[in-house]
Specification:
Blueprint: E1 2-6, H1 16-26, E2 31-33, E3 38-41, E4 54-62, H2 67-84, E5 95-99, H3 104-120, H4 125-138, E6 143-147, H5 153-165, E7 174-181, H6 198-208, E8 212-213, E9 236-242, H7 245-253, E10 260-268, E11 276-278, E12 289-304, E13 308-314, E14 320-325, H8 332-336, E15 344-352, E16 355-365, E17 370-373, E18 385-386, E19 393-394, E20 401-402, E21 406-409, E22 417-420, H9 438-442
Parallel strand pairs: 3-10, 11-12, 14-16
Antiparallel strand pairs: 1-4, 1-5, 2-4, 3-4, 5-6, 7-9, 7-10, 8-9, 12-13, 12-15, 13-14, 15-16, 16-22, 17-21, 18-19, 19-20
Helix pairs in contact: 3-5, 4-5, 6-7
Bound molecules: zinc ion.
């Protein structure tokens, strides 16, 4: 059976992944957990959701498939959500979806579509409840749901079921090793600051790169920043992301930290670019969606208040797109400032407030950066001076003359290839360049 849960966390403390880790342990009385629990990130531009837009999923192989066991599992999960969800938080609207084996085949495709829409697009609660009403009518003994308050969590719960049900196809997945603090240390209980030894994190990164990523941000070379350690009241102590369960486990073993409560490996769509849609024209873009688009640089970057850099891109039909590298993207902005009109680039990012928020870029072709200068005297090698308006240029000493200025090629400071924002500014879903093969980097 599949169990999808979502929206049990709040901005103050609880975290849906913690509840999933807890359930993965405790549900073992009813069956075995197939593989790893799933941590599914949804459309990152939807702002009403709590931090991170994450839904969780567990596939359980029940010891017994009778209706009594089914009911027990459903009430067990629902009670855990009621106990742990921060129901007092306005933004917390939990949901849970249960799908039993009999419905797998019929729901595989519709749930895959639902998952894809939840990652790339916008889904309203009514769409999720309509989907569930239909499925529950068709499979009265195999599809169930539970929701609290406005039930927004049903969206992510269904999406998580869709991702799990289709995980054996060629879908890209990564892994995260998440470590939880002792409950007495949680910030919400007035616990102390997190202790995770930075040197051990640097070692963990070195031991496992390129199979793990975003443990440390080396963007500011002089001061490596442990980007895998959150702040605030979150029960998470740290999380290591990587290509395999083996790689993230190996990295986590290197880490020296405060005493921990538990650790859980999740299979996840993080770092896969699952949110991006390829388009050819700006006119195809809709707000709150994320895109890949190729075009020509139309105007150079302007740094605006707050340290954000904005430039314009032109698509093949002449459509103009405003692209932004915001202040937290750090050194990535220095690359953006090197772009000049007529450079050909491919941009990756979320479209919100009429602006594409850049996550990544590929320079496809560099334009010639020309500057006109006074000509050089062929006799003495010195720069000539103007002989007066419309009179050309001359060298006083050698008495040589030339009609016009010369065009000089200015060396470009960027190259053809990919550029990305630093780890601390990366979206969960964004695929880091470290995951690109040599072939990928050519395309
Ligand atoms: Zn001269």
């Amino acid at each position: 059976m599949l169990i999808g849960i979502d929206d049990t966390d709040s901005n103050e403390g609880m975290c849906t992944t913690y509840l999933a880790a807890l359930l993965a342990d405790e549900l073992r009385v009813f069956g075995t957990v197939a593989g790893f629990p799933y941590l599914i990130r949804l459309n990152p531009t939807i702002s009403y959701k709590t931090r991170g837009n994450a839904a969780l999923g567990i596939e359980l192989n029940l010891f017994a498939e009778d209706s009594e066991t089914k009911e027990k599992v459903i009430s067990f999960v629902t009670e855990k959500i009621e106990t742990y969800a921060e129901l007092s938080c306005d933004q917390t609207n939990p949901g849970a979806v249960f799908i039993f084996d009999e419905a797998y085949e019929s729901l595989r495709l519709p749930l895959n579509d639902f998952y894809k829409k939840a990652v790339t697009g916008v889904i309203e609660i009514e769409e999720a409840t309509a989907f569930l009403n239909q499925a529950e009518l068709e499979f009265p003994n195999a599809v169930f749901h539970a929701s609290m308050k406005n039930g927004r969590g049903l969206i992510g719960s269904l999406a998580a079921c869709g991702a799990m049900l289709n995980s054996d196809t060629d879908t890209d997945f990564t892994f995260e090793y998440v470590v939880y603090r002792l409950p007495s240390n949680w910030g919400s209980c007035g616990g102390p600051e997190r202790f995770v030894d930075k040197e051990s994190l640097i070692l963990a990164d070195q031991m496992t790169t390129p199979e793990t990523w975003d443990t440390i941000d080396f963007d500011k070379k002089t001061k490596p920043f442990p980007v895998c350690v959150p702040s605030g009241n979150d029960p998470v102590l740290f999380g290591i992301r990587g290509n395999s369960a083996a790689a993230v486990s190996k990295a986590a073993e290197c880490v020296i930290s405060e005493e921990i409560e538990k650790a859980q490996i999740f299979k996840t769509n993080q770092g896969t670019d699952a949110h991006l849609i390829s388009v050819r024209f700006v006119s195809e873009m809709k707000p709150l969606h994320s895109y890949i688009l190729e075009g020509i640089v139309h105007s150079i970057a302007e740094t605006i208040e707050g340290g954000h850099d904005i430039f314009k891109l032109r698509d093949p039909s002449g459509g103009i797109l405003t692209c932004a590298a915001f202040e937290p993207t750090g050194n990535f902005r220095h690359i953006i400032r090197e772009l000049i009109p007529e450079d050909e680039i491919r941009v990756y990012g979320s479209f919100k407030n009429e602006t594409l928020n850049l996550e990544k870029m590929k320079v496809l072709k560099l334009a010639e950066d020309l500057k006109s200068e006074n000509p050089i005297c062929q006799e003495c090698g010195k720069r000539m001076e103007s002989a007066g308006a419309g009179q050309g240029f001359r060298c006083k000493k050698c008495k040589t003359k030339t009609e016009s200025k010369t065009e000089v090629l200015i060396p470009r400071k960027i190259n053809i290839g990919y550029y990305e924002v630093p780890p601390s500014a990366r979206r969960h879903l964004s695929k880091p360049l470290i995951r690109y093969s040599k072939e990928d980097l050519k395309s």
